[in-house]
Amino acid sequence: MLGKFGHVLPLLLVLWLVLFTIIKKLQSIGRLDNKEEKASLFVLVLLFAGFLLLMGCELFFLKDLFYPWRMNTVFKFYYQAWLLLAIASAFSLYFIGSRWRPATLPGKLSMASWWVVCALLILGSLIYPVAATITFTDGFRAGVGEPTLDGLAFVQRSNPSEYEAIAWLNSEVDGAPVIVEAAGGYFTDYFRVSARTGLPTILGCPGHERQWHGSDILFQGREQDVNLIYESEDISQVQGLLEKYDVTYVYIGHLERERYGDEVGQKFAGFMDVAFNNEGVTIYKVRED
Fold first, then answer.
1. Which CATH architecture has domain 153-286?
2. pLDDT value for 268
3. What one-character-per-residue DSSP string does 101-142 give?
4. pTM above 0.70?
């Protein structure tokens, strides 16, 4: 039993010490006229809550799509734990620095060593934001365009035809009509049209939809229907699926051609109108009665 839960003993010890300190503070609550004393009590509560979350993640986890792994539990609760512990740590540095005044040489050397270790840890934690900025901006090297907050600038550089189509949808289409596009997996360029325009589509990323909903009951069969819209040669079947999902537009871009073949858009010309067309993208619109 001890071997199974031995890894949480340090956390239990820290929690006990923090809780003991809180109780001692509360016993003197009537004498807490000093604002710093009240602040220290509040920070102790934050510290206790942060360590309690950490220990909770070691003992329990939410059974979700990733079972038997607990990563979603850790992701969600560690965010809160880090915030609580960060506030408590910042105050703790101030608290120690304002009260630790050694008079002897060994004491002063100990204090100096303490602050050197703290400084190294803080400097170490600052490596990530610098390294991440360099990595995600490709080192601001020439040839990748000017720095910008425009999230579609990379599309304009890498796929001008698709950028033009997205810009047309954003500027010319009113309301929220449904648009069909190829559906794909995690961390791909699929479902990019709905993401970049805000227009609803039949199905986004199936894996993420399954995570958000807990199951695929609500969208079961939709991926197969999207495939049928692009692949089926039965026009009546395709029209039935478009009507089923109240579709207004069908998008034909490079991903649709890669997945369904270069001739994927030809059949739509027989019963739909071309709303937009350029070198790489064709958008068909359902004909109005």
1. 3-Layer(aba) Sandwich (3.40)
2. 95
3. ---SHHHHHHHHHHHHHHHHHHHHHTHHHHHHHHHHTGGG-T
4. yes
> In what order do the strands lie in the sheet containing 247-252?
178-180, 247-252, 282-286, 272-277
The pLDDT of residue 80 is 93
User: Per residue in 188-210, pLDDT tens?
Assistant: 889 999 999 999 999 988 888 88
At residue 88, what is the residue type? Answer: A
Report pLDDT digits (tens) over 118-140: 999 999 989 999 999 888 887 77
Cα 281 to Cα 191, 232, 251: the distances in Å are 15, 20, 8
* pLDDT attached to residue 279: 93
Q: Evaluate whether 165 touches 281 at the Cβ level (below 8 Å).
A: yes
Tokens of 263: 């001739």
Question: Sign of torsion, CA 12 38 76 132?
Answer: negative
What are the helix (H) ranges across the chain?
2-5, 9-27, 35-59, 71-99, 105-125, 127-136, 153-158, 160-172, 192-197, 206-213, 222-231, 235-244, 254-260
Q: How far apart are the first and last CA of the chain?
A: 72
Tokens representing 5 are 């839960």
Q: Please list the ranges in the chain whose pLDDT falls under 50.
A: 1-3
